[in-house]
Amino acid sequence: MTFLNPVLLGAAALISIPLLIHLLRRQKLPVIKWAAMEFLRQSQSKLRRRVRIEELLLLLLRMTIIALVVLALARPVLRSISLPIISQNSRVYAVIVIDNSYSMGQSSERGVTAWTATKQAVHQLLTRILRPGDSVSVLLMNHTVKPLIESPTYDLRMADAQVKNAPLSFNSTDFTAGARAALALVHGAAAPVKEVYFFTDDQKSGMTSAAGQQMVWQQLSKAAHIVWVSAMSQTSEVPNLALHLRAPSRELVTANLPARLETVISNYSGISRNITLQLQLDGAPPGAPQSIEVPAYGKQSVAFTPYLPQPGIHTGSISIANSASIDGLATDNSASFVLHSRSNIPVLVQDMSPAFGGSSSSSFYLYTALQPDSTSHIFAPTLIEGRLGAVNLSRYSCVIITGITTLSANEVQALIHYVSAGGGLLIFPGPATNAVSLNSLAAKLLPAKLTAKMTSSPDQPLTLDSGSITDDPSLDIFRDASILNIGDAAFNTYFNLVPSNPIDSASAPRVLVKFSNGKPAVVSSTLGLGKVVLFASTADTRWNNLPARGAYLPLLYQIVTSLAAGPQSHVNLALDTPAVLSLPIAFSGRSVTITRPDGRHSVIPTVLGPNGVTVQYSDTDMPGIYQVTAPGYRDAFAVTLPSGEGDLRRMTNTQAFLEQEGVKAASITVVNNPNQLAAAVKLSRYGSEIWRSLVVAAMFLLGVESLLARLIGRRG
Amino acid sequence: MTDTYGVQAPVTPSSAAHPQTLARIARLELRARTVVDGMLSGMHRSPHRGSSVEFAQHRDYVPGDEIRHIDWKVYARSDRYHIKQFEEETNLRATVLLDVSESMNYRGAQSALSKRDYAAVCSVALASLLIRQRDAVALAICGDGVEQFVPHSSTPGHTRTISETIEKAKPSAKSNLGGSLHDLAERMQRRGLLLAFSDFFTQPEDVMRGLQHFRHRHHEVVLFHVLDRDEIEFPFKTAATFLDMEVESAITAEPNALRREYLAAFGAFVEGLKRDCRELGMDYVLLRTDEPVDTTLARYLATRMNRAR
């Protein structure tokens, strides 16, 4: 048995109180001169033995009651049966999983942030709870897990110092990722006692429902004891407003093609809020702020569509202007972006099966769409018919091949080179398409194989399924069919596209849109720094009536601008996504300076490879604008926060929550107040508290004492 | 005894005879007179009066004897005071036995008089009643033995003699009531009445043997069992040390725990005494010191009168 409050054992001296009362009562007895002594003697001799036993019994009862109360106050813990007795002195291997998601920046009730409170709790664990000879590993957990100390170390001081300097990330939480990483560590450890400590703000959104999640938690709870320490001991929710900027649907715009910046405002509080949003572009607000009412625990989208008439690189931000006093977390109140503007976008339209007669030509609709009138300066299309020949593809931001028949080996080689360097290629098949030849010669270029040509019944034509649109920023605007409906076009003929086997996960083909029968309608893949998009049907009205529908033009614009953005298509990056920048060939062998949002600089050498001159930068762990400079060169990219982390609502019952994941109650210790960590760890190591039983026993004995005293007349 | 006492049952007891009232009167004789006056206020005298003028014997003069009964001729011869006694001078020769052992000094918190004081008032009151009827009354102060003896006399001043003797009697540390009874029985040559006032806290067998001695000589015996309320009810609540009033011993006890056993033992003692009295043809009268003296005595006298009829 051990005690969580051993200091209170000193109160055991209270046991002497009944003894003192007993003695004092004996000393203070009144004296009565008595005549009828003989009868008292007779009675006394009968009673003497009984009285002595009763008095002793009462004395023992009273002393026992006090002893029980004192023991209960000292919170004794009985060693659990599941742990061997020797475990008390066994070496402990502790895996410390620290939640460093940016929600940990919220204020806790003790006036410090959850992050500071967590560091203090970890310090307590490393300096007071774990003993010399125990070993630790430390993991920093957000949506991924970064080991701070991976190999178990016995140097607890060093671990403490490292934790003190650990940075807060700008990522969201994923508890299961932490559990998985901890499981990998405890599996290989040989220590007799294994403990996994989670230090977190209990964010509910951190418990995602990933596949195999339950198995991870079950295995972890079998392999180690889980101690869950909440840095937020307060019970009330912290209200928060969060702004999330979706990746711009086009990062490349022209003077006449506005940018579209769509933000989602989340109100994580129980009261409806009127939110004011301010757009900043190149350091100045281009217009008046926008206001919007966001319901309690609701979301609202707000879009800004600024024009960027000046060609070049533009940076800016959107922020919540009136978040003061209702915001638990300032980090997610603004988001930055980078846009590229050109005077126009040069596009090459190659019609491989031209037909005479205007509208019957495959390129007619494309060309008309790209340049509807002479005043439109968004695209600068160039039309060629037949083969590519010796066209300098590098002059075009996007190449569209319509009515493709087949490609020669040289053409394939030229196109692969063009796309790898950052170009965009859009391919439409036609009646003259030689699928067999194309599949054979252009397998490296095409994102999918064109197999059988399919025809649908005229009575039941196929349509495009807007619900199947993948998470591609360029196609986001088509998700809501009430605004732009791509589902009203009928398709009677198409090629059955079978996505190619990927070389690696990054270049894996993606089905952007499907037909209503589930077959791929548009497939894309990356190749080097560029992208290839393949349609299953024609760009004219021979196999479908899409060109006659209202969605044709915006669909084409979105895909072409996305493809034309080329290497700049990733200047608005998610956190921790590596930035790959393409530079002119003249920068081969030179370096660029990347200035982070916090002002730190990195000098990165350029690399000359098959994709041209590039710079890769992986340290994108902070939201904001990253400036890329070199003599005679300037570029920028933006990193945005992940959405969802601003929801500061916590798991109301962590224990129950983990039990739902298959964790046995005996394998978890939930500590809601970091100050109680030491007591809770003792409890988890040595068994269960028995103070309640002691109090019940004391109450029962008190009743017995009261009854007995009344029965034998000791209350007088 | 009805004709002897010549009294009838009181109509109501006198509040003046309540122990608390009596306790305020210092002199025993006055206390007794208060009781007697109270009793007689509701009674009428008996028409029968006994008288005799035949000389019977001489006896020594004791203070209180009327001077006119001194035999001056004897004094002239022997230079000593002798009193002339006459045959049938009294109707009855009563002997009052008063136990003055230490235990009789007990006075409970609820009682105004100690047992001894209460018994003294009763005995003097009865003696007074008897003397008023010209019955001869003797007094025996008993402790370790018969410590003082006032011979029989029926003179009006004898009441004062008895009361003064009682007042002056010192308490006896020890009690030997059995021995005293035997001694007294030997002294009483003629048939008479024994009025014994005691708590009888001594060996019951000894007491009974002494009383049997009296019955054997055809004396009439009345036992006045003087008890305090505390002794009858044992009302103590808190633990206490009980110190023996006669011998050096003490008992520490929890009264609540002890009460049942005590009351049982005490009840057995009283019942045993009553039973023995019945068997020996003696009267048993319980005198509770918290009850009015005249009430108790009158009740007893009324009982006797009813029985005589």
Question: What does this 3D model show about the protein?
Answer:
The complex is a heterodimer of chains A (716) and B (309). With 716 residues, chain A is an alpha/beta fold. Chain A folds into five domains: 2-79 and 691-711, no CATH class; 91-236 and 648-686, 3-Layer(aba) Sandwich (Rossmann fold), CATH 3.40.50; 240-338, Immunoglobulins (Immunoglobulin-like, Sandwich); 345-569, 3-Layer(aba) Sandwich (Rossmann fold); 570-640, Sandwich (Immunoglobulin-like). Chain A is 25% helix and 30% strand. Chain A contains 13 helices and 36 strands. In chain A, the strands form eight sheets. In chain A, strands 18-17-19-20-26-25-24-22 form an eight-stranded mixed β-sheet, with helices on both faces. In chain A, strands 6-5-4-7-8-35 form a six-stranded mixed β-sheet, with helices on both faces. With 309 residues, chain B is an alpha/beta fold. Helix content of chain B is 42%, strand content 21%. Chain B contains eleven helices and ten strands. In chain B, strand 3 (93-99), helix 5 and strand 4 (136-142) form a beta-alpha-beta unit. Chain B is globular and about 70 Å long. The A-B interface holds A 25-26, 29-44, 46-47, 50-51, 54, 712-714, 716 and B 102-106, 115, 199, 201, 228, 231, 236-247, 249-258, 261-262, 264-266, 269. Strand 2 of chain A pairs parallel with strand 8 of chain B, so a sheet runs across the interface.
Helices and strands in order:
The complex is a heterodimer of chains A (716) and B (309).
Chain A: E1 2-3, H1 16-27, E2 31-34, H2 37-73, E3 76-78, E4 92-99, H3 114-129, E5 135-141, E6 145-153, H4 156-164, H5 175-188, E7 193-200, H6 213-223, E8 225-230, E9 240-245, E10 252-254, E11 261-268, E12 273-281, E13 290-294, E14 299-304, E15 312-320, E16 334-342, E17 345-351, H7 362-370, E18 379-385, E19 398-404, H8 409-420, E20 424-429, H9 435-441, E21 448-455, E22 464-465, E23 493-499, E24 510-515, E25 520-527, E26 530-535, H10 552-564, E27 572-574, E28 579-583, E29 591-595, E30 601-605, E31 607-609, E32 612-617, E33 624-630, E34 633-640, H11 654-660, E35 668-671, H12 677-686, E36 688-689, H13 691-711
Parallel strand pairs in A: 4-5, 4-7, 7-8, 8-35, 10-16, 17-18, 17-19, 19-20, 20-26, 27-34
Antiparallel strand pairs in A: 1-3, 3-36, 5-6, 9-11, 11-14, 12-13, 12-15, 15-16, 21-23, 22-24, 24-25, 25-26, 28-32, 29-30, 29-33, 31-32, 33-34
Chain B: H1 2-5, H2 19-22, H3 28-41, E1 54-60, H4 72-78, E2 82-87, E3 93-99, H5 115-132, E4 136-142, E5 146-153, H6 158-168, H7 177-187, E6 193-198, H8 204-216, E7 220-227, H9 229-233, E8 240-244, E9 250-253, H10 255-280, E10 283-288, H11 293-308
Parallel strand pairs in B: 3-4, 3-6, 6-7, 7-10
Antiparallel strand pairs in B: 1-2, 4-5, 8-9
